[in-house]
Amino acid sequence: MSAIFKREFKSYYSGMMGWLLTGVMLLFGGLYFTAANLQGGYTNFSIALYSFVIVLLIFIPLLCMRSFAEEKRSKTDQLLLTSPVSITGIVLGKYLALLAMFAVPVAIFSLYPLIMLMLGGVDLVASYAGILGYFFMGAACIAVCMYLSTLTENQIIAALSGFGVLLVSYLLPSIQTLFTTGSGLAMAAFVVILLAVSLIVGLRSRSLTLGAGVFVVGFVLLTILFNTRSAVLTSAFTSVLGALALFEPFLEFVNGLFSVTALVYYLGVIVLSLFLTGQALEKRRWN
Amino acid sequence: MIQVEHLTKRYGSHLAVDDISFEVEEGIVYGLLGPNGAGKSTTMNILTGYLSASSGTVSIDGHDILEEAGAAKACVGYLPEQPPLYVDMTPREYLLFVAELKKVKRAERIEQVEQAMERTGLIEMENRLIKNLSKGYRQRVGLAAALLGNPKVIILDEPTVGLDPAQVIEIRSLIKELGKDHTVILSSHILSEVSTLCDKVLIIAKGKLVAQGTPEELAQRLTAGSALNITALGEADAVMNALLTVPGVSEVQITGQQNGETSVTVQVPQGEDLRAAVSAALAAAGCPVLGLTTASMSLEDVFLQLTAQAGDEEAQEILEEQEEDALCPEDLEFVQDAVEGTVQPDGEIGQEDDASAQAEQEEADEK
């Protein structure tokens, strides 16, 4: 595991990518720190961090796109999978290297509250809690994007799918507000989702009847639920959407709270994504 | 050393490896021979734990490749068809990484890496980036990586493909050397390579193991007996009659007649040496013997016959294609032998090829 970690981390900084990505993060960090904390007078550094959260939508997919996609393309996964290292070791080695890459700018950010301390007003606790929350949020996004890079051998596709997923996740809170109880929009969304699910079922099982069956049964159930228990249906749906909004829990830290729930949520996302990554690698050997 | 039982690998409806079982003994060089797409690489990928079999088991040194993956993989050094190299590293960095990956102790790493580089002739390239190395050197880096950790078994998938003739010679002599203290399994579709390098040959066609044994055994197994090619001075009838008087001779075939000389092929029962009797009989009949050679089936013939039995028409094409390719390496082997100052028994194969070519030529002349 440590061999993979070291190689991976070194290779980012032996090329231009590592320096470029770190530079971009530091540039935005410095910019928003100056604007929000030094000029704007906010005492919580999390506010600066939150203002350029959107940069993560680019930074993280670019960071993770190479991870497994490139190994598959250049067939170096053959070396890893035939050496006496477990799949867990491979996944953790790779993940920790990405995490370390992200930790470099975050470590530099954690000096900023000290600058504020020298200049006067700072809420140290809220600032450092915010940095911790920010790191966990990034760690969760990295885990998701790393999983996506196991699904393809094309780095560009890995980066685009990572960007797409993070973008949808970022926009979810505003999408969520569209679904009010009894709205036709909610029903339409459900039907679209149902259609997608039955299409996948139909394609995977290569059976038109099964796909159509799933759709018909689902549609009848949905219509009944929609007409009788509309509120339950929409609230269940919005809470599912809420769970997929990766950037939302971090807001608690921005509001000056130390949210254990948020950290647990991020940890959960990380564990699930790493598990799926391991499964994806394992599955490749059986295909 | 390695036990493979009822190995089957399915890709969807395609059966890449079909119920293969074999055993690999320690300290022997094995050759996996078969036309392209026969399932050689798939078999090797399963042996090394890169792919999982659909059914069947593989155990290496007593460790099951699935149950005790770590222990089993630690016994194997693998060079896949395309060496798995990180091109942004130098050979030294890469080999140090692989050594660590293979859990070589920190104190031994540098020594082992240097040893592997020396054996594969990489010392002068150790600090260049792999992306700037030629195919031959990349192959060597892959081979050096397979040697790290001093594995008991070394598995090489088509180790000489795409190399220039001089590199082919070097890699082959390295493999021979490795065979002295490792178990080596190599795959190839070049017959001359397998017959010179390997102690045992496994022939695979269409995912099935169609034959295994030493190259000589395989050649023998397929001929009911061997044959004698004889050229004698005299008319065909006289030669024929003289030969048929020799006990044990059942079938005589005239292959050519020229300037009063007759060439014939005599089928001889397995295990009998009739050379003395035949030449005595011909001398007694007043037909002096001008030439007498023993012909046994070459690995090439065996391969053709077996793959044809497996219903593989492509094998023929590949073999033809190979004969063109094979000219070079085979010639080079003689150069190599001359350089090494040793004479290899594989001279026989060359001779006999010449003999059959001559026979064909003569047949053509007759017509």
TrEMBL record, chain A:
UniProt topology in membrane: Multi-pass membrane protein
Keywords (A to Z) from UniProt: Cell membrane, Membrane, Transmembrane, Transmembrane helix
Short name of one Pfam family: ABC2_membrane_3
Major localisation: membrane
InterPro entries (UniProt xref): ABC-2_transporter_component, ABC2_TM
GO cellular component: plasma membrane
Transmembrane regions: 12-35, 47-65, 95-119, 125-149, 156-172, 178-201, 208-226, 263-281
A single MF term (Gene Ontology): ABC-type transporter activity
Protein name stated in the entry: ABC-2 type transport system permease protein
Native source species: Allofournierella massiliensis
Automatic annotation (TrEMBL), chain B:
Location of region: Disordered: 341-367
Biased composition (Acidic residues): 349-367
InterPro entries: AAA+_ATPase, ABC_transporter-like_ATP-bd, P-loop_NTPase
Ranges for domain ABC transporter: 2-231
Family in the record: Belongs to the ABC transporter superfamily.
PANTHER family: ABC TRANSPORTER, ATP-BINDING PROTEIN
Protein's recorded name: ABC-2 type transport system ATP-binding protein
Upper classification of the organism: Bacteria, Bacillati, Bacillota, Clostridia, Eubacteriales
